[in-house]
Automatic annotation (TrEMBL):
PANTHER family: BTK-BINDING PROTEIN-RELATED, X-LINKED RETINITIS PIGMENTOSA GTPASE REGULATOR
Name of this chain's protein: RCC1-like domain-containing protein
Membrane-spanning ranges: none
UniProt keyword list: Repeat
Species for this entry: Propithecus coquereli
Start and end residues of each RCC1-like domain: 23-296
Spans of repeat RCC: 42-93, 94-146, 147-199, 200-254, 255-305
Highest taxon in the source lineage: Eukaryota
C-alpha cells in the first residue's frame, strides 16, 4: 500500500499496488520525474514520467500508478537506483540492468544510446558480482563484492574518478585509485561521487564547485579527477553517505548528520545566509537518525531528508497506523507503507 499526493490532488490518497499480493515494500528510489518500488517478492514497479524510457516499459508516456517492469519479473532484484532520467537494478546474482536516458553513456551498455525503454544487462560486468549501484545525474557507480569500484557515463567534472584524460564512458571502467581498499558503499551525486571504506574513511571526487567534496586547505580545487581521502570527515565516524545535486550529507555511527556543499535553498539544514564551510552538524534533530537521503532539483530547491527509527501515518477514519517510507520527487510526494 502507498499514499500519494501532488500539486493537482486534493489531499492524501491511499492506494494499493494492483497484483502485488502480500508483497511489502523493500526499497524505493526516485529520479527527477520518476520513481521505482522494489517489493519483498523481488519485483520492481515504476511510476512517473517515461519520456526518456525511465520506467522500463514501452508505449507508456507516463504512469500515475506503479506498474510492474515485466523485463525484471524473473530476475529476483535485490536493489534499485535512479539517476536524473535513468535507472539501474541489481539482481540476486549480482548482475546489473540499465534503462532510460543514455546519451552520456550513463547506462553502461557500450553505446551512447539516446533512450532505452527496456532494461538491458550491462555485459561488461559479466562475471563480477555487484552488491551496490548508485546513479548520479548523468553518471553511474557500482561496487563489487570484492571491493572494486566501477564508473561510467559523463566525466566532464571528473565524476568517474578515472583521471582528467578520460572522456565520457559508455561502458563500466574500474576506478583504479581505489584498488586494494575494502569498501562498504558508493554514492553518486549531480557531478560528484563518494566511496566509504569499511574502516570509515571517505573518498570523494568530481565537482567541488559548491564545496560538495568537503575539501579543505589553501587553493581548494573546483574539481578532482581522482578519489581523494576527505580529511574533514576522518574523525566523524561516518557510516553512510548520500549525495545530492551539489550537496552531500553523511550519517555517523552515533546517529548524527553532517552536511556540506550548496546551501542556496537551505538544503544543508541551516539558514542559507549563514557563512559556514565544510561539514556542519545538523542541529535541532530530536532522536537518533537511522537513514538520510539527499534530493536533487528540478526548477526548485534541492532537499535533504532524514528518517528516524519509526515513521508512522495514522488514518483517523479507521484508527489504523501505517509505517511508511517517503518518496520525494519534484512534482509529487509518495508515502509508501512498510
Amino acid at each position: 500500500m502507498y499514499f500519494c499526493w501532488d500539486a493537482g490532488s486534493r489531499g492524501l490518497q491511499r492506494r494499493r499496488a494492483a497484483g502485488a499480493g502480500d508483497a511489502e515494500l523493500l526499497q524505493t528510489a526516485s529520479g527527477e520525474r520518476h520513481s521505482l518500488l522494489l517489493l519483498t517478492n523481488r519485483t520492481v514497479r515504476s511510476c512517473g514520467d517515461n519520456s526518456r524510457g525511465q520506467l522500463g516499459r514501452r508505449g507508456v508516456p507516463r504512469a500515475e500508478l506503479p506498474e510492474p517492469i515485466q523485463a525484471l519479473e524473473t530476475l529476483n532484484v535485490d536493489l534499485v537506483s535512479c539517476g536524473k532520467e535513468h535507472s539501474l537494478a541489481v539482481c540476486c546474482k549480482g548482475r546489473v540492468f540499465a534503462w532510460g536516458a543514455g546519451s552520456e553513456g550513463q547506462l553502461g551498455i557500450g553505446e551512447f544510446k539516446e533512450i532505452s525503454f527496456v532494461p538491458k544487462k550491462i555485459t561488461t560486468l559479466t562475471g563480477i558480482k555487484i552488491i551496490q549501484v548508485s546513479c548520479g545525474h548523468y553518471h553511474s557507480l557500482a561496487l563489487s563484492k570484492d571491493s572494486q569500484v566501477f564508473s561510467w557515463g559523463k566525466n566532464s567534472q571528473g565524476q568517474l574518478g578515472l583521471g582528467k584524460e578520460f572522456p565520457s564512458q559508455a561502458s563500466p571502467q574500474k576506478v583504479r585509485s581505489l584498488e586494494g581498499i575494502p569498501l562498504a558503499q558508493v554514492a553518486a551525486g549531480g557531478a560528484h561521487s563518494f566511496a566509504l571504506s569499511l574502516c570509515g574513511t571517505s573518498f570523494g571526487w568530481g565537482s567541488n564547485s559548491a564545496g560538495q567534496l568537503a575539501l579543505s586547505g589553501k587553493n581548494v580545487p573546483a574539481q578532482s579527477n581522482k578519489p581523494l581521502s576527505i580529511g574533514a570527515l576522518k574523525n566523524l565516524g561516518v557510516i553512510y553517505i548520500s549525495c545530492g545535486y551539489e550537496h552531500t550529507a553523511v550519517l555517523t555511527q552515533d546517529g548524527k548528520v553532517f552536511t556540506f556543499g550548496d546551501n542556496s535553498s537551505g538544503q544543508l539544514g541551516y539558514s542559507p545566509t549563514a557563512e559556514k564551510r565544510g561539514p556542519q552538524l545538523v542541529e535541532r534533530i530530536d532522536g537518533f537518525v537511522s537513514q538520510i537521503d539527499c534530493g536533487r532539483p528540478r526548477r526548485c530547491s534541492s532537499q535533504t531528508h532524514f528518517c528516524w527509527n519509526l515513521c508512522q501515518l495514522c488514518d483517523n477514519s479507521s484508527g489504523i497506523c501505517y509505517k511508511y517510507y517517503v518518496i520525494l520527487t519534484s512534482s509529487s510526494v509518495k508515502l509508501l507503507t512498510d
